[in-house]
Amino acid sequence: MPGKFIVFEGIDGSGKSTTIAAIAERLAAAGAKTIQLREPTEKTDASREIRRILRTATKIDAKVSGDLLDLFLIDRLWDIKHQIEPALSSGNVVLLDRYFISTCAYQSADTGETLNILQKYLDDTRILRPDALVFLNLPTKIAVRRLADRSARDVFETETRLEAIATRYAAAVRRLQESAHEIKVHEISHELTNSDFDTLAEMIRGIIK
Q1: Is 7 exposed, middle or buried (0-12, 13-18, 19+ CB in 10 A)?
Q2: Are 91 and 1 in contact (CB under 8 A)?
């Protein structure tokens, strides 16, 4: 039986990694095979260059954004071919930390550009569409408070930038809901609790069935 593809999106500090781990534990307890992945993959030259740019850049201008868009696409296509599709073919539930929605939100200067990038991804037949999207729309102030504990932060991780990114994220998710009805979207706008993890795991179990 083919697996299911679940994507988790949200600004830095929104709790994606914690959420994915909690859901994977619950799905495993229910007998589901899961695999946890993230983008950038850190397994391609493109992904390593993305990390280098994000750690060293002091500002994101049009050229840097364009370079990042190209690098993310290269890394994403590799991820789909070499990790996501094989895992799905083996019957796994793939839990992916960030996908093309994050690229739309982070590598754009305004909402109009966000939606243009999104449309290109939706029109690209090489891009595998997820079965569900979990959007952690956490208030920016809470996310920034969490990020304060990180030893290394990239150029995007300031409150002002994250506020703008959160706005673009929301616009991209709304458009996705309008344009891709086959993708089940679940949005949470508060700090997650065990009850939320239970609810998300149950939602995913419903998709598996």
Answers
A1: buried
A2: yes
- The pTM of the full predicted model, rounded to 2 decimals, is 0.93
Q: What distance in Å separates the CA atoms of residue 93 and residue 167, rounded to the nearest whole number?
A: 29
Burial 152-171 (b: 16+ CB within 10 A, else e): eebebbeeebbebbbebbbb
Locate 135 and state its tokens.
Answer: 């959007």
Give the pLDDT confidence score for residue 157 in this predicted structure: 67
Could you identify the residue written with the tokens 């891009």?
Answer: 127
200, two tokens? 């998300």
- The larger pLDDT score, comparing residue 55 to residue 132, is at 132
CB-based contacts of 40: which residues, under 8 Å, 6+ apart? 46, 47, 50, 51, 71, 72, 75
Q: Tell me the C-alpha distance between 11 and 159, whole Å.
A: 11
Q: For 114-166, write each residue's pLDDT tens digit.
A: 999 999 999 999 999 999 999 999 998 888 888 877 655 566 667 788 999 99
- 40-53 mean pLDDT: 96
8 neighbors 95 (Cβ within 8 angstroms): yes
